[in-house]
Amino acid sequence: MFPSKLMNMRHMNKIFSIAITGLVFLTSCQKLDIKPPNVLSDDQVFANQAGIDAYLAQVYRKLPVEDFTYRPAGRDGQGFNIHHEWEHFYHAGGACGEMVGPYGGMDIGGGFGYWPYADIRDVNYFMETLPKYAKNFAGNAVNELIGEAHFLRAYYYFALAKRYGGIPIIKNVQNYPQQTIEELRVPRDKEEDLWNFIGEDLDSAYNAMPETSVSGRANKYVAAALKSRAMVYAGSIAKYGSVNFVDGDARAQGFVGITADKAAGFYQKAIDAAKLLDGHYTLYRKNANKLTNYTDLFLDVTSPENILTRDYYAGEPERMHSWDATMSPNSGMNYMTGDGLSRCYPTLETVERFGTLDVTNPDGTPRRYNSLADLWQGQGLEPRMLATVYFPGETLRGKLFDIRRGIYPTFSGTAAAEVAKTTRTFLPSGDHSTTYPGDASLVIIGNAGMYPSSGSDDNTRTGFYVRKYINYKETDIKKIGLFSSTTHWIELRYAEVLLNRAEADIETNQLDDALLCLNDIRDRAGAPALTLADMTPDVVRNERCKELAFENHYWWDIKRWRIADVLLNNARFKALMPYFIYDEKKYIFLKEPESFQRNYNFDKRFYYEPIPGGELAKNPNLYPNNPNY
Amino acid sequence: MLLFILPIWAAAQQRTIRGRVLDAKDNSPLAGVTVASGTGTGRVAATTNDKGEFTLSVSTDVRELTFSYVGYKDVVEKITGKGLVNVTMNIGGKDMGEVIVVGYGTQKKVTLTGSVVQLKNSEIVVTKNENVVNMLTGKVPGLRMVQRTAEPGAYENSFDLRSFGGAPLVVIDGIPRGGIERMDPNEIESISVLKDGSAAVYGVRGSNGVILVTTKKGSNRNGKFDFNYSVNQGFQQFLGMPKGVGAVDYMMLTNEKVKRDFAGNFISNAPPAYTYENIKPWLDGTFAGADWIGSSFNTMAPQVQHNLNISGGSDKVGLFFSLGYMKQGGVLKSNDLDYDRWNVRSNVNVKITDRLRAQVLVAGYLDQKNQPFQDLWTIFKYAWNQIPINQIYANNNHDYLNVMPDNANPVAITDASKVGFKKATGKNLQSQLSLEYDIPGVKGLKAKGMFNYGYNVNDNTAYRKLYNLYAYDPATDVYNPSLVNGVNGKGTLNRTYGTNTSTLSQLSLSYANTFFKDHNVSALVLYEQSHSKDDNIFAQRYVLLPVDYLFGGESTDQQGGTNLNGVNEIATRAIIGRVNYDYKGKYLAEFSFRRDGSNKFKPGPSQWGFFPAYSVGWRASEETFFKNLVSPNLVSNLKLRASYGIMGDDGNTAFQYIPGYSYPSVDPADNKPLGYMFNGQFVNGAISRGLVNDDLTWYTAYMTNIGVDFTAFKGKIDGTIEVFRRDRKGILAHRLGDLPGTAGVTLPFENLNQDRSEGWELSLTHKNRIGDLGISVTGNLSYSRLINRFVTENPQGNAYQQWRNGQSGRYTNIWWGVDYGGQFTSYDQIYNYGTNTGGGNNAVLPGDYYMQDWNHDGVINGDDYHPIATYDLPLMNFGLNINLAYKGFDLTALFAGATGFWTEYAEQYGEPLMYGRSALSKFLDSWHTVNPDDNVYDPNTQWVSGKYPSMGYNYGQINNSTKGVLDATYVRLKTLELGYSLPRVLLSKVGVKNCRVYVNSYNLFTITGLEGVDPEHPGQLPNGDFNFGLGGYKYPLNRTFNVGANVSF
């Protein structure tokens, strides 16, 4: 072999060796022990307050607060905190005659299978894990946080108890496969035991938690307020559920129902818990004008009446709500809102809880009004009534609640006779662009008015719109749209605590205390004071229905009072329909069936929801199911 | 003038070659042999006569002739000085020497034992489309393909191989990073599809098959370079674009619907929504209805592609350089929807020494998609359902766009200058260096090293702009503006920026040698490792000024962050080995394996898997006894082959073993953080991942394939038949006996379920030459289905429910529904109809559809459901590719189709006046009363019949019925191309080597039973996944007409 060739060979080997070494160097052996960068561990989460906040943010988010986004019949198996829910007209009040809306009959009676044990597990896990990291926290923080966890757990169980009665009480983290499936198939607890457990958890919370908290988060008085609510529920279930019930195995074994003799004890706990708030919270009275004051009560974040609020995040459209856009008329033309549409309206029955609206002359003919506003202006109506619903002829964002069912070219006869007719002579319209023949300035149904029964239903069907929680201070229509509202939801307010207390008082014959509470509320409402002689359960209940209207209490109240099956027995609800009489240039108002023509019934078994079917299949020990399911 | 000069010029340059062609075996003359000089469009050719003789006139600079004959090996012969060329030819198909790209190497087609299909560049580019994936349709047996949309820049296809259920792994020049859809087709040399155990060398990612793309490389052309330029100008039409009804029709239809409203009072009809006074001004022309569709959409949009490439080289250096540009316009009249893309590729081969070779491959693309801010599907929705009595402009004054329900005025929402825009840009760079070295001392031993670096950037901007819509108040003659589209009355500008950086390196030793003349052995051992990292960042500001950059936004309430799902780190290591053996090319055997590890599974031994594959082949046609039995003139090639391979699928299993928390927890629906407001501040939540399974691993696939390849009639017929089965085990599921809900956790995923895909494929090619006419026809047909062999499930309550809902041992994607009965034609028929169609038939009218009572229980309900169809990809796909060449002309027609394929119309396609909005004009052919004010519930009412039921019929009833679920079987002319290569004599004067011009069409026509929609355009699915078809509002498919040219210098 020639030397030069040898050289060349060596030279080549060298080049290749250098190149290969270079490649290997570039790519030195790849490690495979790489965790995904987007998963945190307990060490990181329980390291400091920020981690705790992140943990609890998830628990609070899932809390069964029946706020604007709550949908009582559920949607895709969820009822709380539904992703991107804007259709707030799926309101519990719209299914039971407080309002009428998209629900046909009693769609919500069976619930949506709420079963939040994953969230309860998160709370239990928090209670068990936090002490392991106690060294990361100063002072009494761990104890206070455990107290907060008790409150949160009670909240979940309260939402379960009012739906199902007795369900399994899980106080510790369950694990699989450390525990067998057989072990994990726990039986139901008795309803009475569950309510007592809720009371005890709230007592633990009250004892451990601090006096104050930041907005959105619980303190000891929040726990007490919830206790007053829960215990008055338990008391009424014991008292009225012993009278009006559906019998069955679950009842015989105590899984639903509480014996009547326990009622007084629960009521007293409600009173005791409510009184704990004395001196710490007061009714909102910032404005001397009773109407404005009552309206602002729901908008003012600094209200001393707010006990627990759920706040909304202004940064992300997906995290805001749409109450303003779905409770006021858009009319397809950005009338009072920039977009959205309404579909749930207060019934005449709800409005007349505050007092009868007299729209008929003694001879039975409809009273003539020069304008829509004459219906309510200067009529001495209760300020709280006007602050709760929008009447025809009021204004919002510079726009008139311009509502007509239609226009009569001419009108004669009595209101009753007119309503009874099968063929009526008024002109309806299918849209907001059709004007009265020969009068281009007169839209037949008004800009906030009613479509015929078959058209789109995004305008009132009762003559009224909801006013509570409507942010009238935002006057810019373009800023009112879907997912643009950040008005906080007041989950617990002092007025409710007073009403819980008054109800427990009246049921335990403590009339003085009941009167005290009611008159405090009525004074703020602008209603005349009551006397001891007025103090009956019905009066207290009616006050509650008025004060807490549209706040998702009515449905639960008529259930726990066991009157839903009586109130909703082929019930149809009424509207107050405004009409314009063209030849007289006057308005009349007719009380007639609301134009959804919905028929409401309540099956008595709905006093309890059925245990979710899938859970019964996975855990036969949950039988017996609630009666008649 | 030209006519005179050309012959003189030609004569001066030409000379005549004569000769004779004989069969090498028996010296018999061969008739019909093609004798040609040059390649491509410069080709001059003649055929031999019965005596095997030919005469050919060629230019004086031609040095050699090529002889080709079907069934014989090509011969290239130098031209001798005398101009006499005699040759002999041997039997043996032209394809016999064809080399097929397989995983980590190449193999001769003749000795291939796996199921691999390879397409050449020319077969790919004949289909003119923006997306290379659509160029595969109909060409690969076993490839199930649905295009879904022609939206510019969307690249959205549903496809898989052999019912495997997931997209195959795409490997470009050895790098498994996908991206085939954004390639310029002109830079592709070939595409190989691995459908069986041959994909097992891709281990845990191979179970859905593999698509290998090889790009063009420069070759030795004695230092010469070809400059190739091609241009394609296309015009798109849009398929399945419906028409809407006019104003009067809308009002009449609405009145018909109102009349029928049962909720009111069915004894007397509800009053009409539009009285005659309402309708009259539209009828007499006082008012004119709005043409929402016509004012929103184009009927034609342009599309253009250019490519310039340089190819060539010397014995030291080879170069391929390609630069491509593509631009596609959209359907929007505003022209605010479009897409463009630049592709560049530079492939250089260098021979450093006799033993050492280097290769540098660099490729990249830049692309950009522009669209209005509004989601495209909602644009179709609002344009199709907008009520024609609403006006585009308030009071018809063109300065004022009218307010519409949902603020969705189609003329506004298609206009980026109103609603703002979304802009998506991508930048991608792939680069790799490899060195190959022939190791001295051992013949056939080579070492190779490769390093690849890839970088990808996605940079997107979404500008939500405020604009005014106006409501005209006739009373005051004022146009009331309302500012819409804002969040809190403000516009937003959102910018997202995501990057991927990845490396991949390989070291390998390969060996190939022949022992004792007949024993051919080749072997490969290769080490590969890769690392890939994704990261992203976004920022958003409210914008008040009309500035579409972040700096123009407000600093208050600004947001920024990272999308959790876009943060990833993946690392892999693998050892790959393969041994091939054949004896005389007759008995073939292959063994391969991959030991594959990744960080997607629990660190330690369980993150490693071993994936072997075995295959054998027997070329019966090489056996003497076979040759004695069957003449090689009849069957020249017969190969039987079988393969078995084990593969994995790590798609849904990655990182499922890790407990802990996702933080920030994000809503899967919108990727926005979930959390809570504490003290007026939003706090991100940490969400627990629940119980995990440490032992979770990939799905394992066991793939078996048996195939027969044959060549008959001297190569005139080529065929392949294959049957296959893939069994998958360890598909994720939650174990039966679910934990009670009170435990608060669900069982973690375990590798429990099993499924099986099986089917067959058939492919036949006929090639022939009749005089100057070259013919090639290839047909393929394939069928496959996926079966759930075992699914962890609870027993059902009764036998019917078990049959209906049980999944074990059942085909997937069964569409359950009821059988359509017919249309009621009279009141009597309704009254005497024994079956309750729902609501006691009180609301049923003549013209309504009725369903069959399948279980004869007197009522139509869910218990009547039985299998009526299947959904998702077709069960059977076919393709027919016809190529004709005559002198300078060539014609290609590619038919593609599918059967075992069903669809269901959604929303506007399926129902008139939905949501109280407008209707498509097809619904005018519906039942209606003779007089518009007739009572529909009066049995004396006379009707005019039509195709559709009267307005107000509940179309929900035909969902999941054989009326609603329609057979979408189709055959379409996917590609038609007619080309003409200009005579070389003409071209060389202007310095052009080759020039071919063509006209082409994509989706020229479709034969299908569907009306008004394209069969590939998705409708709705029985399980209600809205995103599948977006309510039928997905951007349409297109038909394109193209003219173009390819020029070489």
Characteristics:
heterodimer, A: 629 residues, mainly alpha, three-stranded mixed beta sheet, two-stranded antiparallel ribbon, 21 helices, 36% helix, B: 1049 residues, mainly beta, 22-stranded antiparallel β-barrel, four-stranded antiparallel beta sheet, 9% helix, 46% strand, globular
Return Rg of chain A in Å: 30 Å
- The number of helical segments of chain B is 14
| Largest sheet, strands/sense/barrel of chain B | 22 strands, antiparallel, barrel
The N- to C-terminal Cα distance of chain A equals 99 Å
> How much helicity do the residues of chain B have?
under 10%
Q: Main sheet of chain A?
A: 3 strands, mixed
Unreliable residue stretches of chain B: 1-12
> How much helix is in the residues of chain A?
25-40%
Mean pLDDT of chain B: 90
Q: What is the number of strand segments of chain B? A: 54
Question: Would you mind describing this structure in some detail?
Answer:
The complex is a heterodimer of chains A (629) and B (1049). Chain A has 629 residues and is mainly α. Chain A has helices spanning 3-26, 42-45, 49-62, 117-129, 141-164, 181-184, 191-208, 220-240, 249-252, 263-275, 290-296, 323-327, 348-351, 383-388, 415-420, 494-507, 511-525, 537-547, 554-560, 564-567, 613-618; strands at residues 39-40, 99-100, 306-310, 345-346, 389-390, 395-396, 399-400, 406-408, 435-436, 439-443, 465-466, 489-493, 574-581, 586-593. In chain A, the strands form six sheets. Chain A has a three-stranded mixed sheet. In chain A, strands 2-4 form a two-stranded antiparallel sheet. Chain A starts with a helix and ends in an 11-residue tail after the last helix. The model of chain A has no long low-confidence stretch (mean pLDDT 92). With 1049 residues, chain B is mainly β. Mean pLDDT of chain B is 90; it is low at 1-12. Strand 1 (39-40) of chain A pairs antiparallel with strand 32 (661-662) of chain B, so a sheet runs across the interface.
